[in-house]
Amino acid sequence: MSFKYKGHLTWEEVVRIETLLNQGLNPAEIAVVIGRNKSVVYRCVNNNSVDGDFVAEEAWQLMHERKRTANHHPRIIDESLLENFVIEKLLTILQSKLLGYGLKSATKLYLIKPYIHGYKPKDLI
Predict the structure, then answer these.
(1) Is residue 7 helix, strand or coil?
(2) Buried b (16+ CB within 10 A) or exposed e, 89-113
(3) Cα-based angle 99, 104, 110 (whole degrees, multiple of 5)
(4) Contact between 49 and 59 (Cβ < 8 Å)
(5) Are 34 and 13 in contact (CB under 8 A)?
(6) 22-63 pLDDT tens trace
């Protein structure tokens, strides 16, 4: 039997899972009744049972607590890493441009470097 993806379980489905478990159905049978894949029901029961008991209200709270504390932006890097990367790139570009104009201009890099490292926008101070 093929099931179409339906997203997260609803409150009504979680309550129905609790009711059907109390009636003695196993998660595979519950999945057929509520029209979900059996792995969805197994995961819901296994991840949200407290001391081996599945209670809809507690399960719902656990589900939402995990959603709330989940890392929703795993690709965002630490600000200091980003800052160091940008500074390194700027210095590389400045150095290559200044070296193209001769040794006198390259010494200006040493005047620019402390400015770049010490710069903090006023709204962050």
Answers:
(1) coil
(2) eeeeebeeebeeeeeeeeeeeeeee
(3) 75
(4) yes
(5) yes
(6) 999 999 999 999 999 999 999 999 999 989 899 999 999 999
119: left (phi over 0), alpha (psi -120 to 50) or beta: beta
Alpha helical stretches, state H, the chain: 11-22, 27-34, 38-48, 56-69, 79-100, 103-106, 109-118
What whole-number distance in Å separates Cα of residue 97 and Cα of residue 84? 20
- The token duo for 55 is 């209670």
Nearest-5° Cα angle at 45, 42 to 48: 135
Statement: the pTM of the whole predicted model exceeds 0.70: no
